[in-house]
Structure formats: structure tokens, C-alpha cells
Amino acid sequence: MASCLGPAVPACAAFRANLLRPTPAIETEFALPGDEEPRPVTICALPVATFGFSGVGRLVALACEVLKDLWSRVDLEALGPETGFYLALPDPWERGLDLGEPDDTVARRIDTLGTRVLQSSLRNMRLSWKGPQRFFGGGNVAFAQALHAAHTELQRCGLRSCVVMGLDCLVEEPTLQSLANDERLKTPDHPVGLTPGEAGAALLLTLDRPTQPLQEAARVVLQAVRLAHEPYPRGSDRPSDGRALAGCAQEVLAAAGPVRSPPLLVSDHNGEEGRAREWGMVLLRLREMSPALEGSPAWFPSIGFGDVGAATGAVAACVAARGLQRGYALSSTCLIMSSADDAGRAAILLEAEPSHHSRGTAS
User: Fold this and answer.
1) Residue 285, helix vs strand vs coil
2) Per UniProt, what is one GO molecular function of this protein (predicted)?
3) Which of 31, 75, 156, 346 is such that its CA lies 20 to 30 A from the CA of 228?
4) Residue 223 · residue 347 · CB < 8 Å
5) What's the pLDDT at 36?
6) How far is it, in rounded angstroms, from Cα 74 to Cα 214?
């Protein structure tokens, strides 16, 4: 991981301890009607690694930090053509990046951005990637889409392992200005808003036991990923009733079969009113689905890392996996739920020490 709280191990420890590191944006301020002076915007930015970088270069800096952290656990040079790279990214136009042609589709813009980011990152790390590379967009569900594709490919025996990464940065001037114009920023006078962040995180998904023993006692298995479409996304004439996201959760729980304990819920709720309403409806539907889910504990990574867009699912998965590995997740399973600003919805189920190793192990 690369985040405002550091790489994976210290970041997860800081999140567990509720240690926060918000900072004022250097270049961006905003003013409300009646303000005599502009106010600073609070963000969750990396303290050192991305300083001085912007645009594509900032995403490359994030990716390099993630690869460094992953390399401390896995020998990336030993990964051969049987290992794919699945990268989740934001739409470059939403981040003020002038990439692609005016008539390009979102998928083509994502491919253009992904190719530039990944090639530059691998070159900076002096890595030569031999396996296939795929790129995914979709806001907060982009990582779940990448994970779903990687999981499917592993189950088809097309690959033996996959690096699945999510990257995004919401702390640069164009994005902050857009969020301010849409009145989405959290401020003292507007508490139902988000705190922009930047982060990257990755999992190594493999069918085999790790060749290098990890320090953690428990292994973590990806049991299932499900995707859905919300009929009433942000901007619709009526609020979400939570049915699509709750349906994803129900499907992953059903696909995994009996679980040993009610899952820990990990949500991408970021403080915005619409997400709060949907989250409440999801909880009601989950409790109707199973009384065992009544009172399930919940984690909200955006409290510690800010809203990190396309990296949201990756950060949540890393936080959940670390909690399962170290045994402080309050359950043997973690149910990660994501809602994009558009219609995308997703759920991911991770479990510690499963009985079936062939479903995919996350490191």
C-alpha cells in the first residue's frame, strides 16, 4: 500500500488505532458566501513520495510506492508470464488529465492512462513484466472489477497468479475544484461531505501457497466477488434503496457457503449524505436477510485514508486482509462493499484460513 498513513503494515496499524494525518491542500482554497477570506481544503495526501509530482507522474509515484511495498513480501522479479497485472484507475478526464481523443470511449482512455502509468512504473522499478496486462475503470468499483476478472482467469487456469492494483488521486487542483463546485467537500459548515485522498494498494492473488512464508500466521482467501448495477445512482430523481448493493453481499455470502462467524463489514461510505442513506438501507436489508448479521461490526477506511476513488476497493481489501492475517478483524471473514458514483456496485468476501486452497489466496 501507499497512503497518507504509509505502506501497508504501519498504515493498517494506524487505521486500527484511529491515528489520522489530514493536511491542508497547498494550492487550493475555497470561499463560501459571506467568507472574508478563503479557507484551506483538508486532504489526505502522501507525506513525501508524491510531492512535486502531478498528473500521470503522480499516479506513477503512487504505483512505484505500492510496488516497493509489495516487493518486500513477494519477489516480483520471479513472477513469470503466468502472472497477470490487473490495474484499476480513474477516468483521466475526471482527474483533469488530457489523454486520448475527444471521441475515445472511457475504456480507451483508461487503457491509455494504464499503459503509461504501468510502463513508467515498471521502468522506474527496473522490472520487466512478462505476463498479460489489463486496465479497469469504474470509480469505487474499479478494483472489484479488476479482482473479479483476475479471479475468473485463475479459476479458468489461464494464469497461476495475478497482481491486482488500484490507484487514484483526488488531491490535485482540477479534482478539488470540481468537488468544491459540486459542494461535495467536507468542511466545518458542510459535514456531510468527503475528504479527498490519494492512495494505491495491491494484492497478489495466487492459486498456490506462497513460496516464501509470510510472517502472518493466517492466510487469506478470496471467496467471491460480485458486481451489480444500481438503478438509482447519484443524480437520479430518487435515492438508492440499497437493493443492488445488498444483493451483491447476499450473492457473495451464498457463493462462499457457510461461514464460521458473521462477517466484518468494510464500507466505502465517505461521509456524503447519499452514501449514508444507501448504507443504512443496505444494513436493513442485510438484517432482513440474516438475523446473524444484526450488529455486525463495520470499518470505514475513508476515515483514515480519505476518499481515494478507484483505489478505494484496493485499500479496503488490504485493510481487511491485514486484519484477518493478524487476527484483530473481529471475524474470520470480511465483506467489502463498494458503490461508485455511477451505477456500479460490488461486494468482495475475504476469509482467513479456508479449507479450500484452490479459490485463490491473497497476499
Assistant:
1) helix
2) acyltransferase activity
3) 156
4) no
5) 73
6) 9
- Cβ atoms of 206 and 157 within 8 Å: the answer is no
pTM (two decimals)? 0.93
Whether the pLDDT of residue 85 is over 80: the answer is yes
pLDDT at 104 over 80: yes
| Among 149, 142, 53, residue whose Cα is nearest residue 106 | 142
What span, in angstroms and rounded, lies between the C-alpha atoms of 8 and 71? 12
Judged on CB neighbours under 10 Å (0-12, 13-18, 19+), 50 is buried
CB-based contact 135:116 (threshold 8 Å) = no
8-31+38-206 and 220-362: identical CATH topology: yes
Q: In the structure, what pLDDT confidence band is assigned to residue 335 with cuts at 50, 70 and 90?
A: very high
What pLDDT was estimated at residue 265? 97
SS3 202: strand
Can you tell me the distance from the alpha carbon of 142 to that of 346, in angstroms, rounded to the nearest whole number? 9
Res. 188 pLDDT band, cuts 50 70 90: confident
Question: What stretches of 220-272 show up as alpha helix (H) in DSSP?
Answer: 243-256
Res 256: pLDDT: 82
Q: Which residues of 271-292 are buried (b: 16+ CB within 10 A; e: fewer)?
A: bbebbeebbebbbebbeeeeee
Predicted pLDDT of residue 167:
98
What pLDDT, on the 0 to 100 scale, is given for residue 32?
66
Q: Where are the domains of the chain?
A: 8-31+38-206, 220-362
Q: What is the per-residue pLDDT for 357?
A: 39
Architecture of the domain defined by 8-31+38-206: 3-Layer(aba) Sandwich (3.40)
Length of the chain: 363
Give burial (CB, 10 Å; 0-12/13-18/19+) of 36.
exposed
Provide the pLDDT confidence category of residue 356 given band limits of 50, 70 and 90: very low
Task: Compute the chain's Rg from CA coordinates.
Answer: 19
| CATH class entry, domain 220-362 | alpha beta
Least Cα distance to 308 among 140, 165, 172 occurs for 140
